Amino acid sequence: MPARVVVLGGGYAGVACVRRLQSRAGRDLQVTLVDRNPFHTLLTETHTVAAGTRPVSTVALPFDFGPQVRRLEAEVTAIHPEGRWVETTAGSLEYDYLVFALGGADQDYGIPGVREHALFLRGIDDARRIRAALAALPRQAPVVIVGGGLTGVELAAEIALSRPGGSLTVVEGAPTLLPSLHPGLALRARRRLGWLGVNVRTGSPVRAVGPDRVELADGTVLPHRLLIWVAGVKGHPLTAQLKVRRDRAGRVEVDAYLRSSRPEIYVIGDSAAFRPAPDARPLAPSGQLSEQMGFAAADDLLSRLEGGPGVPFRPHFRGVLLDLGGLAAAGLIYRLQVAGPVAHLAKRAAVAGHVARTLGLRSLFRLLTGRGLPVGSTPGPQPAAPAGPRVHGETGSRENTRVEEAAPDTAGGKARWTAQGTDASQTAPNTAAMAGGPAAGAELPGEAGFPGSPADPGSAGFPPP
Ligand SMILES: Cc1cc2nc3c(=O)[nH]c(=O)nc-3n(C[C@H](O)[C@H](O)[C@H](O)COP(=O)(O)OP(=O)(O)OC[C@H]3O[C@@H](n4cnc5c(N)ncnc54)[C@H](O)[C@@H]3O)c2cc1C
User: Fold this and answer.
1) Is the pLDDT of residue 390 over 80?
2) Which of 72, 188, 259, 413 could be joined to 408 by an S-S link, Cβ 3.0–4.6 Å?
3) What number does the ligand 1 atom closest to the CA of 121 have?
């Protein structure tokens, strides 16, 4: 009986995980990918859509895993770890192993007014909302971005370039921009934003936000007609339903194998708190780390399904590249500092590499020829489907998927179903092997920090959060 692996979320972590499991899907594994969208979002590129400098088709690529991987296009609404099943807007799914890769949520630190008055940037819908809001504003209307990290700097540079002479301010609570990156990068970014006419306020924590003002802790009040909040990531709200150990930011504490305190649940990507050494801080969320986690979680699961000991996750930092508007960019490639068009090209190559490794060459061709999802295809959660889940893959059409219309024994009367009509009570194969695996929390020794990033010694070169 194939093991049922359900991967929640087709972002940087989820697509890498599915790519690695794909070869076994339809054989000894049944792999189902659930995402609210029918496409993978290049979240690292969405600042260009928000600023209106690039179309949606450059950041949305349809999933392309072949018929053996089942894909459910639906919003995940609840997770029941005791019974090992997941509720979605298109029906319920049972699993033997769950891979939680739904990304993170915007961290507002509980600051009053943020939720009510700010826009965020966590996907194509958000990017479009920002673009529409900018388009509706006169050039001189004050725009404020809170968060001077990688996302905030990239977004500010792109908006400043698309709205020359506009009033734009970046507010960062830490003493410098890009506080977790190399000081040289922070200086270069600050100079570039200054050159683009952006006001930069560092060392200015926000105290409260109103419909037209941002109050700083030092009493300064900044007027705004548009506020964009990109000041950190916390765990996805659904991590609370996993009933596992989480850190203060709601990210799930994972062991050396990326498993939560429930060994059948892996957590990867922005909602995972991975500590490379027992006393180290969790690594900062990033697309680079998320992709590596996706591959690693799949490797660990495949090893255990074969009765192996598992494969510990070994993150490796390839560097960091940030856009500074147009062809301007800067960053580190391993030990090498790069800037200007070279850095810009390197960043595009990094994105292309991610697509080739996870979605494959056909999707890379789509990306390079601008044939991502056409503009106008409405992203975002789909309306609840008529009776029966919309499952793509396996034999490609829904009719062939046998659905067990069990008596509704769950809240809201949704049918519980198992893939291929297997009896829900059957337990997953190999759980004995899983239980026998190394204990949760078997930590990895830290690796040397990456030159130029103020990483603490145990962080494998990745910057601390
Ligand atoms: C503007 C911007 C620039 C960035 N630049 C960089 C960079 O240069 N380098 C870098 O390394 N990182 C960068 N990042 C960070 C990087 O994008 C994230 O760390 C990475 O995307 C996290 O991957 P993930 O798989 O955890 O989540 P995501 O990529 O966010 O994917 C989560 C997926 O889950 C789906 N989903 C979420 N909730 C539900 C639900 N309830 N039901 C169904 N589906 C759901 C979403 O549709 C999405 O497909 C940037 C981020 C932003 C916003």
Assistant:
1) no
2) 413
3) 53
Question: Which of 35-44, 54-63, 298-307 is least confident?
Answer: 54-63
pLDDT tens digits, one per residue of 323-373: 999 999 999 998 888 999 999 999 999 999 999 999 999 999 999 888 776
Q: Is the CB of 103 under 6 A from ligand 1?
A: yes
3-state secondary structure of 18: helix
Mean pLDDT estimate for the chain: 85
- Ligand 1: atom nearest CA of 321 is 8
From the CB of 17, is ligand 1 less than 6 Å away?
A: no
12 pocket-lining for ligand 1 (C-beta < 6 Å):
yes
Nearest protein Cα to ligand 1, atom 3: 44
Q: What percentage of residues in the chain have a pLDDT greater than 70?
A: 80
What phi, psi does 244 have (nearest 5°)? -130, 175
Q: Is 235 in the pocket of ligand 1 (CB under 6 A)?
A: no
How far, in whole angstroms, is CA 159 from its chain's centroid?
22
CB of 125 shorter than 6 A to ligand 1: no
- Give which of 233, 201, 202, 452 is closest to 331, Cα–Cα: 452
DSSP output for 83-138: TTEEEETTEEEE-SEEEE---EEE--TT-TTHHHH-B--SSHHHHHHHHHHHHTS-
> Quick one: tokens of 182?
């190399």
Ligand 1 centroid vs 126 CA: distance in angstroms?
A: 12
Structure tokens at 263: 């060994």
Domain boundaries, the chain: 114-229
For the entire predicted model, the pTM comes to 0.85
Sign of the C-alpha dihedral, residues 106, 248, 319, 18? negative
Q: What is the pLDDT of residue 242?
A: 98
What is the 358 CA–ligand 1 centroid distance (Å)? 14
- Say if ligand 1 is within 6 A of residue 11 CB: yes
Looking at the CA of residue 230, tell me the nearest atom of ligand 1.
53
Homologous superfamily in CATH for domain 114-229:
FAD/NAD(P)-binding domain (3.50.50.60)
**Distance from the CA of 425 to the center of ligand 1, in angstroms?**
34
Could you tell me which residues are beta bridge partners of residue 331?
321, 338
